[in-house]
Design brief:
By secondary structure, this protein is mostly helical. Helices cover about 70% and strands about 5% of the residues. The chain has a two-stranded antiparallel ribbon with strand order 1-2.
Protein backbone atom coordinates (compact mmCIF):
# COMPACT_ATOMS: atom_id res chain seq x y z
CA UNK A 1 0.00 0.00 0.00
CA UNK A 2 2.88 2.36 0.81
CA UNK A 3 4.37 1.66 -2.62
CA UNK A 4 1.06 2.61 -4.24
CA UNK A 5 0.90 5.87 -2.29
CA UNK A 6 4.38 6.79 -3.48
CA UNK A 7 3.53 5.77 -7.05
CA UNK A 8 0.27 7.74 -6.98
CA UNK A 9 2.19 10.81 -5.90
CA UNK A 10 4.30 10.53 -9.07
CA UNK A 11 1.60 9.11 -11.34
CA UNK A 12 2.24 11.54 -14.17
CA UNK A 13 5.88 10.41 -14.18
CA UNK A 14 4.97 6.71 -14.24
CA UNK A 15 2.61 7.04 -17.19
CA UNK A 16 5.28 8.56 -19.44
CA UNK A 17 7.28 5.37 -19.98
CA UNK A 18 5.98 1.91 -20.70
CA UNK A 19 8.35 0.15 -18.27
CA UNK A 20 7.19 2.44 -15.46
CA UNK A 21 3.54 1.89 -16.38
CA UNK A 22 4.15 -1.85 -16.17
CA UNK A 23 5.71 -1.37 -12.73
CA UNK A 24 2.79 0.78 -11.58
CA UNK A 25 0.29 -1.82 -12.84
CA UNK A 26 2.12 -4.53 -10.89
CA UNK A 27 1.76 -2.39 -7.75
CA UNK A 28 -1.98 -2.09 -8.37
CA UNK A 29 -2.24 -5.87 -8.64
CA UNK A 30 -0.31 -6.47 -5.43
CA UNK A 31 -2.63 -4.00 -3.67
CA UNK A 32 -5.60 -5.98 -5.05
CA UNK A 33 -6.86 -2.97 -6.99
CA UNK A 34 -7.89 -5.21 -9.84
CA UNK A 35 -10.27 -2.84 -11.62
CA UNK A 36 -7.58 -0.15 -11.83
CA UNK A 37 -5.06 -2.73 -13.02
CA UNK A 38 -7.45 -3.86 -15.78
CA UNK A 39 -7.93 -0.24 -16.81
CA UNK A 40 -4.14 0.19 -16.96
CA UNK A 41 -3.93 -2.83 -19.27
CA UNK A 42 -6.49 -1.26 -21.60
CA UNK A 43 -4.70 2.09 -21.42
CA UNK A 44 -1.34 0.66 -22.57
CA UNK A 45 -2.89 -0.68 -25.78
CA UNK A 46 -3.93 2.85 -26.71
CA UNK A 47 -0.79 4.67 -25.56
CA UNK A 48 2.18 2.43 -26.35
CA UNK A 49 3.16 0.71 -29.58
CA UNK A 50 3.84 -2.95 -28.84
CA UNK A 51 7.17 -4.66 -29.46
CA UNK A 52 7.84 -8.33 -28.90
CA UNK A 53 9.58 -7.54 -25.62
CA UNK A 54 6.93 -5.17 -24.30
CA UNK A 55 4.18 -7.56 -25.33
CA UNK A 56 5.92 -10.29 -23.34
CA UNK A 57 6.08 -7.99 -20.32
CA UNK A 58 2.40 -7.08 -20.57
CA UNK A 59 1.42 -10.74 -20.93
CA UNK A 60 3.34 -11.43 -17.72
CA UNK A 61 1.38 -8.64 -16.01
CA UNK A 62 -1.88 -10.10 -17.34
CA UNK A 63 -0.92 -13.49 -15.90
CA UNK A 64 -0.01 -11.87 -12.58
CA UNK A 65 -3.43 -10.20 -12.49
CA UNK A 66 -5.29 -13.43 -13.22
CA UNK A 67 -3.25 -15.40 -10.67
CA UNK A 68 -3.78 -12.79 -7.96
CA UNK A 69 -7.53 -12.63 -8.69
CA UNK A 70 -7.74 -16.43 -8.49
CA UNK A 71 -5.79 -16.41 -5.23
CA UNK A 72 -8.10 -13.83 -3.64
CA UNK A 73 -11.20 -15.69 -4.83
CA UNK A 74 -9.86 -18.94 -3.34
CA UNK A 75 -9.17 -17.17 -0.03
CA UNK A 76 -12.72 -15.79 -0.03
CA UNK A 77 -14.21 -19.24 -0.63
CA UNK A 78 -12.02 -20.79 2.08
CA UNK A 79 -13.11 -18.06 4.51
CA UNK A 80 -16.78 -18.69 3.67
CA UNK A 81 -16.38 -22.43 4.23
CA UNK A 82 -14.64 -21.78 7.55
CA UNK A 83 -17.42 -19.43 8.70
CA UNK A 84 -20.13 -21.88 7.63
CA UNK A 85 -18.45 -24.60 9.69
CA UNK A 86 -18.11 -22.29 12.70
CA UNK A 87 -21.78 -21.27 12.46
CA UNK A 88 -22.90 -24.78 13.42
CA UNK A 89 -20.89 -24.74 16.66
CA UNK A 90 -21.33 -21.08 17.57
CA UNK A 91 -23.25 -21.90 20.75
CA UNK A 92 -20.12 -23.54 22.20
CA UNK A 93 -18.13 -20.31 21.99
CA UNK A 94 -17.78 -17.25 24.21
CA UNK A 95 -19.63 -14.06 23.38
CA UNK A 96 -16.39 -12.49 22.11
CA UNK A 97 -15.79 -15.45 19.79
CA UNK A 98 -19.41 -15.37 18.59
CA UNK A 99 -19.03 -11.66 17.82
CA UNK A 100 -15.87 -12.27 15.80
CA UNK A 101 -17.54 -14.98 13.72
CA UNK A 102 -20.63 -12.84 13.14
CA UNK A 103 -18.48 -9.91 12.03
CA UNK A 104 -16.93 -12.19 9.43
CA UNK A 105 -20.33 -13.49 8.33
CA UNK A 106 -21.62 -9.95 7.79
CA UNK A 107 -18.95 -9.47 5.12
CA UNK A 108 -19.77 -12.53 3.00
CA UNK A 109 -22.32 -12.63 0.14
CA UNK A 110 -25.99 -13.00 1.02
CA UNK A 111 -26.53 -16.59 -0.18
CA UNK A 112 -23.91 -18.25 2.07
CA UNK A 113 -24.88 -15.81 4.85
CA UNK A 114 -28.45 -17.15 4.78
CA UNK A 115 -27.12 -20.71 4.95
CA UNK A 116 -24.91 -19.82 7.91
CA UNK A 117 -27.48 -17.98 10.03
CA UNK A 118 -30.14 -20.70 9.99
CA UNK A 119 -28.36 -22.87 12.60
CA UNK A 120 -27.33 -19.73 14.50
CA UNK A 121 -30.88 -18.42 14.90
CA UNK A 122 -32.26 -21.74 16.12
CA UNK A 123 -29.40 -22.39 18.56
CA UNK A 124 -30.51 -21.68 22.17
CA UNK A 125 -26.89 -21.09 23.23
CA UNK A 126 -26.09 -18.28 20.80
CA UNK A 127 -26.37 -14.85 22.41
CA UNK A 128 -29.42 -12.76 21.49
CA UNK A 129 -27.29 -9.82 20.31
CA UNK A 130 -25.59 -12.09 17.79
CA UNK A 131 -28.95 -13.36 16.55
CA UNK A 132 -30.31 -9.81 16.29
CA UNK A 133 -27.33 -8.83 14.16
CA UNK A 134 -28.07 -11.73 11.80
CA UNK A 135 -31.82 -11.02 11.69
CA UNK A 136 -31.22 -7.35 11.00
CA UNK A 137 -29.24 -8.14 7.84
CA UNK A 138 -31.99 -10.50 6.70
CA UNK A 139 -34.49 -7.69 7.27
CA UNK A 140 -32.42 -5.04 5.50
CA UNK A 141 -31.90 -7.40 2.55
CA UNK A 142 -35.62 -8.28 2.65
CA UNK A 143 -34.90 -12.00 2.44
CA UNK A 144 -38.00 -14.03 1.63
CA UNK A 145 -39.16 -17.07 3.56
CA UNK A 146 -39.44 -18.10 7.19
CA UNK A 147 -36.68 -18.66 9.74
CA UNK A 148 -36.91 -20.51 13.05
CA UNK A 149 -35.57 -18.46 15.95
CA UNK A 150 -34.86 -19.37 19.56
CA UNK A 151 -35.65 -16.05 21.25
CA UNK A 152 -35.55 -15.42 25.01
CA UNK A 153 -36.06 -19.15 25.73
CA UNK A 154 -38.97 -19.35 23.27
CA UNK A 155 -39.18 -21.02 19.85
CA UNK A 156 -40.48 -18.51 17.32
CA UNK A 157 -40.70 -18.02 13.55
CA UNK A 158 -39.86 -14.83 11.66
CA UNK A 159 -40.37 -13.48 8.15
CA UNK A 160 -37.60 -10.94 7.40
CA UNK A 161 -39.68 -9.22 4.71
CA UNK A 162 -42.05 -8.01 7.44
CA UNK A 163 -39.27 -6.57 9.61
CA UNK A 164 -37.41 -3.26 9.76
CA UNK A 165 -33.91 -2.57 11.04
CA UNK A 166 -33.59 -1.92 14.77
CA UNK A 167 -32.85 1.75 14.21
CA UNK A 168 -35.98 2.19 12.08
CA UNK A 169 -38.29 0.29 14.42
CA UNK A 170 -41.10 2.61 15.51
CA UNK A 171 -40.84 1.61 19.19
CA UNK A 172 -37.09 2.20 19.19
CA UNK A 173 -37.57 5.64 17.68
CA UNK A 174 -40.21 6.53 20.27
CA UNK A 175 -38.08 5.36 23.19
CA UNK A 176 -35.03 7.26 21.91
CA UNK A 177 -37.07 10.43 21.41
CA UNK A 178 -38.48 10.19 24.94
CA UNK A 179 -35.04 9.61 26.46
CA UNK A 180 -33.75 12.66 24.63
CA UNK A 181 -36.71 14.77 25.72
CA UNK A 182 -36.75 13.68 29.36
CA UNK A 183 -33.06 13.15 30.14
CA UNK A 184 -30.59 14.53 27.60
CA UNK A 185 -30.94 18.24 28.36
CA UNK A 186 -30.81 17.83 32.14
CA UNK A 187 -28.07 15.20 32.34
CA UNK A 188 -26.15 14.38 29.10
CA UNK A 189 -23.89 11.87 30.88
CA UNK A 190 -26.83 9.94 32.28
CA UNK A 191 -28.49 10.09 28.86
CA UNK A 192 -25.46 8.41 27.24
CA UNK A 193 -25.55 5.63 29.83
CA UNK A 194 -29.27 5.12 29.29
CA UNK A 195 -29.11 4.92 25.51
CA UNK A 196 -26.27 2.40 25.67
CA UNK A 197 -28.35 0.19 27.94
CA UNK A 198 -31.46 0.79 25.84
CA UNK A 199 -29.73 -0.40 22.67
CA UNK A 200 -28.51 -3.54 24.39
CA UNK A 201 -32.13 -4.18 25.37
CA UNK A 202 -33.36 -3.47 21.82
CA UNK A 203 -30.91 -6.01 20.42
CA UNK A 204 -31.95 -8.63 22.94
CA UNK A 205 -35.66 -8.07 22.21
CA UNK A 206 -35.41 -7.75 18.42
CA UNK A 207 -37.38 -8.64 16.37
CA UNK A 208 -40.20 -8.84 18.95
CA UNK A 209 -39.61 -5.43 20.53
CA UNK A 210 -43.23 -4.36 20.21
CA UNK A 211 -44.44 -7.43 22.13
CA UNK A 212 -42.40 -6.40 25.17
CA UNK A 213 -42.31 -2.61 25.07
CA UNK A 214 -46.04 -2.02 25.00
CA UNK A 215 -45.64 1.55 26.25
CA UNK A 216 -42.48 3.47 25.24
CA UNK A 217 -43.20 6.07 27.93
CA UNK A 218 -43.42 3.52 30.73
CA UNK A 219 -40.32 1.74 29.41
CA UNK A 220 -38.41 5.03 29.62
CA UNK A 221 -39.76 5.61 33.12
CA UNK A 222 -38.32 2.24 34.12
CA UNK A 223 -34.89 3.49 33.03
CA UNK A 224 -35.39 6.69 35.00
CA UNK A 225 -36.43 4.69 38.05
CA UNK A 226 -33.41 2.41 37.61
CA UNK A 227 -30.95 5.31 37.54
CA UNK A 228 -32.72 7.55 40.06
CA UNK A 229 -33.96 5.97 43.29
CA UNK A 230 -36.07 9.04 43.98
CA UNK A 231 -37.90 8.94 40.64
CA UNK A 232 -41.56 7.91 40.70
CA UNK A 233 -43.48 7.50 37.48
CA UNK A 234 -47.25 7.49 37.14
CA UNK A 235 -49.22 4.27 37.68
CA UNK A 236 -46.17 2.14 38.51
CA UNK A 237 -48.30 -0.64 39.91
CA UNK A 238 -50.36 -1.35 36.78
CA UNK A 239 -49.90 -4.70 35.10
CA UNK A 240 -48.14 -3.70 31.85
CA UNK A 241 -45.49 -1.75 33.79
CA UNK A 242 -44.91 -4.77 36.01
CA UNK A 243 -44.63 -7.02 32.96
CA UNK A 244 -42.10 -4.71 31.31
CA UNK A 245 -40.13 -4.51 34.54
CA UNK A 246 -40.02 -8.33 34.60
CA UNK A 247 -38.80 -8.35 30.98
CA UNK A 248 -36.04 -5.92 31.92
CA UNK A 249 -34.98 -8.32 34.66
CA UNK A 250 -34.95 -11.24 32.19
CA UNK A 251 -32.78 -9.26 29.78
CA UNK A 252 -30.35 -8.42 32.58
CA UNK A 253 -30.02 -12.14 33.30
CA UNK A 254 -29.29 -12.86 29.64
CA UNK A 255 -26.75 -10.05 29.45
CA UNK A 256 -24.72 -11.54 32.30
CA UNK A 257 -23.18 -13.83 29.66
CA UNK A 258 -21.46 -10.82 28.16
CA UNK A 259 -19.35 -10.25 31.26
Amino acid sequence: QKAKEIADDKYSFYEQEESLTIFYTAILIKCHLFLQAEQALVFRKKKFSLTNKSNENWLAIQEMLEEEQAKIELEKQEKIQYLLKEAYSLGNKSFAEQSTIMKGLEEIPLEPFIEAVKPILSNPYVNGIIKATAIERLAIEQVAGEFDVYWMKEKRTIQPTSLTSIKNHVIVQEVMALLSERVEQNDPTLYQAMIQEAYLHFFMLYPFINEVITSPLKWVELYQKRYDNFYHGADESISDTKEMEEWMRKIDEELKDLA
